[in-house]
Amino acid sequence: MKRLSKQWFTEHKHMDQLPERIIQFGEGNFLRGFVDWMVHQMNKQGLFNGRIVAIQPTPHGKVVPKLNAQDGLYTVALRGMENGEIIDEVEVVSSISRGINPYNDWQEVLKVAENKDIRFVFSNTTEAGLSYSAEEYKTEVSPLSFPGKLTAFLYHRYKVMNGAPDAGMKIFPCELLEDNGSLLRAIVLKIADDWKLPKLFTEWVQESNQFCNTLVDRIVTGYPKDHIDEYRTRLGYEDELITVGEPYHLFAIEADEETANTIPFHKAGLNVFWSDVRPFRDIKVRILNGAHTMMFAAGYLSGKKTVHEVMEDQLLREYVHRGIYTEILPVIKINETQSKAFADSVIERFSNPFNQHFLSDIGLNATFKYKSRLLPTLEDRILQEKKLPEIVTFSLAALIAYYQPERMQGSSQIIRDQPEVIELFMKSWSDLNNGNESIENLVKTILANQSIWGTDLNEIPDLPETVCHNLSAIVKSGMENAIAMSIEKED
């Protein structure tokens, strides 16, 4: 079977001539099924006329070689319900010109910085990727962190273009963190200070570059490994980068009208809002992303693989439903009708039979996701109701149960998190399994780690005792029985 390439796929041949206008840190399923798909929609309508250079974010990435072998082409499949109708469509996306592995070819990344046509930066390196990390500045070698790469990129551009105000970039981080643009700018400035870069450069970063806060929403499940034969037959070609997602999408961006007009997503009929992202963020992160993090460990340890399988199980569906409607919704300080409508849509999206959204993928960097997505709900619930939210608290115990050594090593490794997180859980569970630790002390040790949670969670009244009780139930009775007991307790 022929492989997807520009040699025979000529439908978007004219787009080969479009200039590179975007540098993108990240080349994973989400960006390809969201931002890159959006840029493609604009290009088809002649509204943007630019392509993307995709930068591999980590040393162990595997996408760039495949992307370059397919000349930047890949297929996006959108499947689900939209306005009461079934959507099932596929499209070859041609908005990426090439991918670069910065760890092998950092100088090529710096050449991109010298290109005056490059005016936009997009990123999605997961929430954990948008964080400060002290590292040495070496002009010939790529920094390891995304903010480090961006700082070095901007500094090279600044030097080559003599600090020209119009050489500044419009930067759109898509990581699911509050005020992500402001956070990224602060980290870049911190790194510039670490590296003792010139004061004039830091002034240029602040005055000539626009760091936009954003909020993204689309469920992208990625490569359909369980249905790949079906897709090969349907498409008639081999594509190692097929990306499957739902039709629904939302992109909220805090930026001025001038910026909106330079990259006019909204004019292409896309669901993009140039406005304050906070209302969108609170609803989306608390409900949709919070529910994902709330369900992944409970579902996986109940023998389920996907979100859809969770929603097909009566007990787990009740678990998710209660968590959303009785614990998350009541603490959201936004229009009640709007929040309820979004919650209803989330239940429908989770139940989409086309979406093979793997729980193990949702579990990527799960500790950080719990901190940003569920911990605020837990804390708000205590402030408002003077008691712990049962389901949200149970999900923390489920997360701890999920992070056991057998899922962190060997060919069956599925847990991916920061090294210090892996080390903490490996040691804690190993000590317990070797009889050197009790579940109570294991829980307290994990909850006490402020580098993970940002605070000592043991200080939250009744939290360590409740998590210990739930974890003990999971270990002794199994996940499903423990969930059933938790729901009965809430009743």
TrEMBL record:
InterPro entries attached to this UniProt entry: 6-PGluconate_DH-like_C_sf (IPR008927), 6PGD_dom2 (IPR013328), Mannitol_DH_C (IPR013118), Mannitol_DH_N (IPR013131), NAD(P)-bd_dom_sf (IPR036291)
Residue ranges annotated for the Mannitol dehydrogenase N-terminal domain, each copy included: 20-263
Signal sequence, start to end: none
UniProt cross-references to Gene3D superfamilies, sorted A to Z: N-(1-d-carboxylethyl)-l-norvaline Dehydrogenase, domain 2, NAD(P)-binding Rossmann-like Domain
Domain of life assignment: Bacteria
UniProt keyword list: NAD, Oxidoreductase
GO CC entries: cytosol
The keyword Signal is assigned to this record: no
Enzymatic reactions: D-mannitol 1-phosphate + NAD(+) = beta-D-fructose 6-phosphate + NADH + H(+)
Occurrences of domain Mannitol dehydrogenase C-terminal (ranges): 276-474
UniProt GO molecular function: mannitol-1-phosphate 5-dehydrogenase activity
Entries under Pfam families matching the protein: Mannitol_dh, Mannitol_dh_C
NCBIfam families: PRK03643.1
Name by which UniProt lists this protein: Tagaturonate reductase
Organism (species): Peribacillus cavernae
